[in-house]
Amino acid sequence: MKILRKKIFDMLMESQFWSPDQMLAFQRNQLAHLLRHAKKNVPFYKTRLDPVFMTNGEIDWNRWQEIPITKRRHLVEERDSMLATELPPGHGRTWEEFSSGSSGTPITTRHNILEGWVSEAVLHRAQRWHGMDWSRTSVSWRGDDGLLSNWPEGKEMGSWAPPWIAPGLRGNSYHVNRATSQENVIEYVLRKSAPYLASRPKLLQSLAFATERLKTPLNLDVVTTFGTGVTDDERDDIRRILGAKMFSLYSSGEGCKIAATCETGHHYHVNQELNYLEILDDKDRPCAIGQPGRVVITPIYNTAQPLIRYDQGDIAIRGPACSCGKRLPVLQEISGRVIHLFRFPDGQTIAPSLPNKEFVVNFGVKTWQLVQTGPLEVDLRYVTTDPDFIPNKAYAIEAIRSRLRPDLKVNFVALAETPLTAAGKFILYKSELANPN
């Protein structure tokens, strides 16, 4: 398996320079396998893909846009029918990814090992772009795995280097739970002498503010952000205060690693070998360069739960070709899910975080939003259609105070529907104070 994973990486190092026609031919060859597999083995797609299948069984690529868009609600309402009854040979074991519901509703998607290997390889390719040294130490600040990665011990994750690298050149990686305070993350990174730190953009911005407030430099070489795009204020604060190069992954539980920033600027290169990506307007037509549109993806190797023309819930803008020599398409901007920073009277600034899966189970509500309404006051707004439902408020208060601050006042506000912005986005953690970011 190590040899196969090295072959995938080697192919990616070549395919980033393929012509658009070469890449399209490669994608269509892989997509044809996916479409035939989905039509045969996934009940959800039994008739949904009919527009592209000709009577002789061949695929009419000119009718691709007639395939209906798959929505997030399908992953909830049609969950069982979207799972493959069997997988192609070699696509291996499966696992599930839980998404926190930053677009409104928590979801779980199933993935398979071949998709995982290609996703791993595009990450290693991006690390190569940014000159990262696989023999050094890396720390990630992420996840809601309870006691498994709590500070001060954290959790040793093994090497983050590609599996074919010689043992003596494979650096260690460590993981601390995202409930860890900024102060303790600073201590942990310094204790591990780690030049690399990975987390979500808002968490890293809050960490930068903490290092500035505590006057404790981290001496990082590269910080990696993952999830949605990075805003200008996040990028400026992280670079100004932490002094490190930034490498950003545009990723999701549904689509794995969709794009990564080029070493020459803030723009992203789409990982076309892993995802067929479309940017569509409100009438489902392809957007021109410079025109904002909805991100619609088809993960090419997910045969466990195919997501064919899946609306990712983000807005992105295509950019012109990059001067770096790579011929992968460019996203010049990604406007994804939004999290506001919470700011407190003593100068503390944090990116709020609750254990989403655990919180949904114990609080008893699938859709909720935490809103800072005063200097030491928050609203927990939740959606319920049952007027007799009684959520577990005691659990929620304890979770919020232990994760954020013990002196917070917590108010509970029941809503009839999910609160969305004018652009249709959902802000999981929102500040209604002046200048939240």
Structural summary, described in words:
This protein is an alpha/beta fold and 437 residues long. It has three domains: 2-121 and 251-337, Rossmann fold; 135-245, Rossmann fold; 339-431, GMP Synthetase, Chain A, domain 3. 26% of the residues lie in helices and 26% in strands. It contains nine helices and 21 strands. The chain has helices at 2-15, 20-41, 72-77, 113-129, 182-192, 201-214, 232-242, 356-363, 393-403; strands spanning 94-99, 107-112, 138-141, 155-159, 172-176, 196-199, 222-225, 245-252, 256-261, 268-270, 275-280, 292-299, 310-319, 330-335, 338-339, 342-343, 349-350, 368-374, 377-383, 409-415, 427-431. It has a twelve-stranded mixed β-sheet with strand order 4-5-3-6-7-8-9-10-14-13-12-11, with helices on both faces. A five-stranded mixed β-sheet has the order 15-21-18-19-20, with helices on one face. Strand 1 and strand 2 form a beta hairpin. Helix 6 runs parallel beside helix 7. The longest helix has 22 residues, at 20-41. It is globular, with a radius of gyration of 22 Å. 38% of the residues are buried.
